[in-house]
Amino acid sequence: MFPVIYSDDFLLHETGTFHPEKPGRLTAIKSALERAKWANQIDWKSPTSLEARSPLVWIEKVHTAKYIRTVKQLSQQGGFIDPDTPVSLKTYEVALLAVNAWLDGVDLAMTGEPSFVLARPPGHHAEPSGGMGFCVFSNAAIAATYALEHGAERVAILDWDVHHGNGTQAIVAQQPQMAYCSLHEFPHYPGTGAEIEQGVHKNLLNLPIKAGSSMADYQPLFETKVIPFLTDFRPDLLIVSAGYDANHDDPLANISLKPEDFGVFTDYCLQVTRKIVFGLEGGYDFNSLGASVVATIDRFRYLE
User: Fold this and answer.
1) CA-to-CA distance for 132 and 207, rounded, in angstroms?
2) Which residues pair with 157 in a beta bridge?
3) Global pTM?
4) Is residue 125 among the annotated active site residues?
5) Which of 37, 39, 92, 123 could join 75 in a cystine, given CB atoms 3.0 to 4.6 angstroms apart?
């Protein structure tokens, strides 16, 4: 069985009909997983409720108190964190629940059980003092922080979203027990992630990708850069910011990956460790998004 952490409550973060980061992203993925030939091997898990565990103690280790208050206040009245990131009545609670889902993924992975966190809003653009780019709280960095206090000595984050995770990088750069590797279209939103950005602890690996690139460009980078960087770091846990907007059909970027390529990426991750948490970031073409998540999880059917 492969755990997928999901709740219909994640659909309650309303962004508007024409916003790319909409609830339909999750329903498209869920439908694709339910159609998979191994659908009966999925263990659908609900995230830990906010009554059972408040994630605020972990969010506060990453984000400023002022920013957390701002999100809560905006959720009470409606508004925007930035022009791309709307906040609706349920956004604050949904964002808290999403963090809990990522923490649940860490709990599973630390016992050797990989999982996929099918949650929203995404998080890798959220910096300590503010969200942006559809992201509210920095889920991957919060999960890494939690892991370091729950048995892990070193945590690596691999970000294959087509956009650079500026928020994750800002947090990881200050933590020598964390490492961050990102492959992203460059130059592209948010404009960060140049190769020279390595951090004071040399724990950052940024691999800019040119528009129009395909698997023929990604695969050598995985083999000569990504895997050596991650294996040299020797993480106790690997967190994957699993964005699928590098697909050829995605409307928000210019990379030409295919859904099956993400299965190959997963194979590379398994060369590093089986203790993996995959968490959804971007991906805005519903068909390729669903197929890509299926391709990711498909690789685990062959594990004993």
Assistant:
1) 22
2) 180, 239
3) 0.98
4) yes
5) 92
